[in-house]
Write a structure and sequence with these properties.
The protein is about 45% helix and about 10% strand. The protein is built from eleven helices and five strands; from the N terminus they run βααααααβαβααβαβα. The protein is elongated and about 55 Å long. Helix 7 (about 115-120) links the parallel strand 2 and strand 3. It starts with a strand and ends in a 6-residue tail after the last helix. Helix 4 packs antiparallel against helix 5. It is α/β, with parallel strands linked by helices. The model has no long low-confidence stretch (mean pLDDT about 100). It folds into two domains: about 5-15 and about 85-195, 3-Layer(aba) Sandwich (Rossmann fold), CATH 3.40.50.1000; about 20-85, no CATH class. The chain has a five-stranded parallel sheet, sandwiched between helices. The protein has helices at about 20-25, 30-40, 45-50, 55-65, 70-80, 90-100, 115-120, 135-140, 145-155, 170-175, 190-195; strands at about 5-10, 105-110, 130-135, 160-165, 180-185.
């Protein structure tokens, strides 16, 4: 059993993410952009893919509902990596420091299976992780207690020696209910201070 470990979320902890990063390239008018992400390609609809629903079902259904926006809906499916503009400042450096210190690293991410298959190969930082649980692959989403139970079993970790980092308070609370310490991510300096205080990083 692994006595001490750090478990990361991916979106808005390691990498920035927002549907607007892609669609701002395709929709010039800001009001129209906001209407589109509130009514057509919405976070709620996108989360169906995170939960395991395949794009082959989601995309044709959405295009049928919004035929005037079919090319933009296609762009969601084919250009999703453009919704992820780059790392959150300082986060990947913390991953590198933890890895260099020999701390076992894991991740639990709400991420569509097909989108993960396209994104994961572009980011060598994930080579530092021993295992990553992807919601769309497992068809389990944070903060479902089952995803944390799966992580504890599959990672082979002692929950009492682990910390889970997520930007979403409900996801952090889910980890804490499974006996894992939680940190709600705001920025890398605050995370660094927490990891140092808990002994995962040296001062």
């Amino acid at each position: 059993m692994i006595r001490q470990s750090v478990i990361f979320d991916v979106g808005r902890v390691l990498f920035d993410w927002d549907l607007r990063y892609l669609f701002a390239k395709l929709i010039d008018d800001t009001d129209e952009l906001e209407w589109f992400v509130i009514n057509v390609v919405t976070p709620g609809w996108h989360f169906q893919h995170d939960a395991g629903r395949p794009l082959a079902e989601m995309v044709p259904e959405r295009k049928a509902a919004f035929p005037d926006h079919a090319p933009l809906i296609d762009a969601y499916a084919t250009r999703f990596n453009e919704t992820i503009p780059g790392p959150m400042p300082g986060s990947l450096e913390l991953v590198e420091r933890l890895d260099a210190a020999g701390v076992p690293l894991f991740a639990i991410t709400n991420f569509g299976h097909e989108f993960w298959e396209a994104f994961r190969p572009t980011q060598p930082v994930f080579d530092r992780f021993r295992d990553i649980i992807v919601s769309g692959t497992e068809r389990l989403m944070k903060p479902d207690p089952a995803i944390y139970a799966l992580a504890i079993e599959r990672f082979g970790i002692d929950p009492a020696g682990a910390i889970f980092i997520d930007d979403n308070a409900a996801n952090v609370a889910g980890a804490e209910s499974a006996g894992i310490a939680g940190h709600q991510f705001v920025d890398a300096p605050r995370l660094e201070a927490e990891l140092t205080a808990r002994g995962y990083l040296s001062a």
